[in-house]
Amino acid sequence: MPRRTVLQGVALLFAIAAYGASVIEAAATHTYLDEDIQLSEVYGGPHGDAFSDMSSIKLGQTLSSITVRGAARIDAVSTHVATPVEATWDHGGRGGTATTLVLDTDEYINSMEIHWGKKKSHIRVFYLKFTTSDGDSISAGTKTENSAIVKAPKGFQLSGFFGRAAAEVDQLGVIWTRRSAKATNLTDNMGNDWFGKRIRNWVGPTLGNAKDTACYRQMVPYNSSKVCPAGYTMYDPVDGTCIAECPLAYPVNCFLECIPQNDDCALEIAQKAVAVLASVVNVATAGILGTVISVYRNVRRNFFCAANIVGVLRSLIYYIRFKQTTAPQGAVEEILAVAYQSDVVIVDLPVAICHCLGLHVPPTLVFSGIVMMIVEAIVKQVIVNGDEILSSAQNVYNLLYNVSVLNSSSSSVDELQELMDTNSTCGYQLKRLTDHVILSVNGVRKKYPGATINDIRVKISRSSLVLKEIPEATNNCMDELLSYKTKQAAYETRDLLRKTFGVIVEQLVTTATTNKGAFVAEQQYMLEVTNYGLVMFSGLDPTRIVWLASQFVQPTCGPTAFIGEIDDGSLYDALGLQTIDEAFVGSYGTWKKKGDGKVNLIFTSSDIKDVKVVIHSGGKTIAKVPVAAGGRATWNSTVAKLEDKTLYLDRWRPNFIGIPGSGGGSLLLWVPRASRGGHLTLHVRINVS
Questions:
Q1: Are the C-beta atoms of 391 and 398 separated by less than 8 Å?
Q2: Residues of the chain above pLDDT 90, percent
Q3: pTM of the full predicted structure?
Q4: Nearest to 665 by CA among 223, 261, 119
Q5: Which residue has the higher pLDDT, 290 or 270?
């Protein structure tokens, strides 16, 4: 694993900080069609944060009301959804006076009048008026010379907004949807079988969730014909090894590792390198049995200067990686992240500079620094493990008493056995499928008695068992799981079942025996427990040795498997489309199981700077698409070329001194196989970020 020096790490961080300080001007987008969805022009300026209701909109939805807050300018706009599920989408701040228009049954909004102008150096939305199909209207703000009236296309209605906002609304456009369109739902009846109805097989929202900061790519030998198993690519032809393509949960290729969406390979390497350096420096200064106080009193100034700078560097890298991989806006996690950043800036960095310059550090500040080490550890835990900590009161007490234990999860460890022990059809299907797996693998062994383990692995990986039967059987359990689990939990259970069958298949291939995957959930659970504990102690142990270990304890990942063919749906539902940060917010599209086999990407930019969108498939860069400022571009491929792989987009954009950088956001989805051709349309929105 390559290592970076502290100086290189500092330079890297300053470059990222400089990139983040870019100042960007306004641009307009263009209207485009996509069957049941149309987007208006967007009006206003490039400030605030990019937002879009696109990922939440359901075709056929109805609004109950709309609220506009404004006075001199527009402070906020809110849509209130009545069906299919009640929801409120707010954009903007809390200033101004709120005015609400309640819609009657079958009444909908079909027109928006918008005015925009300058407030100091920022272009913002000054006035809004919405008119309904019944002639009712609502307005707020102050009219300006720059205005437009946006009308719904025939048969369409207002379903949401996109644009930019913070304390006020800076930019706004309308998302129109066809009134007669019907949404596809997970539980739609896709046919009947002996066990009951089949529902849609979708990737869902959980398969792309990373459980760790990285994973090591699994390696296996190729077979006697020098062919790799499905989901693997050739790594070393001389040694005869194949390496796993980066899976959906860790889609970014980083040499022998895969890292989560929106993470940076250079920072992943830097974090491990800094972990080694920080541990060495802390051991040299404090000793294994040293205390924080003795470090403050006894160490030489020059060496202590280096130690403090390394500590600050480590903290900043950790903060940057958190921001890159989550990019929340206004959530509790962001507030905690800001608090953590301020601790580094207000406490750690001034103390480090004082020591470097030989200045006296007041005793109270020294004391605060020691206290803040504990605060830092707790804040890190809340940022990294917030859900686990807040899942029960016991975990909160465990955090406070420095006992690093996660809730045990018997439903996770014993999921397969519990389902098999029930009288449900799902349990029987899994039992039947397990038997089928055993018979299929043993059948290959019998048919090809001279085949090596590697030959059998390749044969099975490309069989109907893996490509069709396991995905179908595990998805058939979804309808039953949804009767007593949330949609999120049902997807997680299905994903775990598929991983379990992967273990069963691999055990049979390599040993001809199986424990039916009983340990797969335990291994995953123990990894999370181990990392949780290591990160906890790293915040409180002055030697940082345990923190060093935590940087290298991570899972081995194989390719994404057992997804099967995917039914029709929006890209958010069907293919697990996910965007992080602002660069691609509002992107959307559709997947069709039956089609012409084409993959069409349509890029629409609201940036005044030219950018280059980099397209990765299975972790490999396959194309770079230049998109002019405020312009459009297209890129086409085929399902056959991209199938059973991740499709990952990031973009290179010049910063304020003209140097291109890849920060600002990413887009991820899964491209499935399709025996009936398939068709994927993706509208890629490129925002100022």
A1: no
A2: 41
A3: 0.73
A4: 261
A5: 270
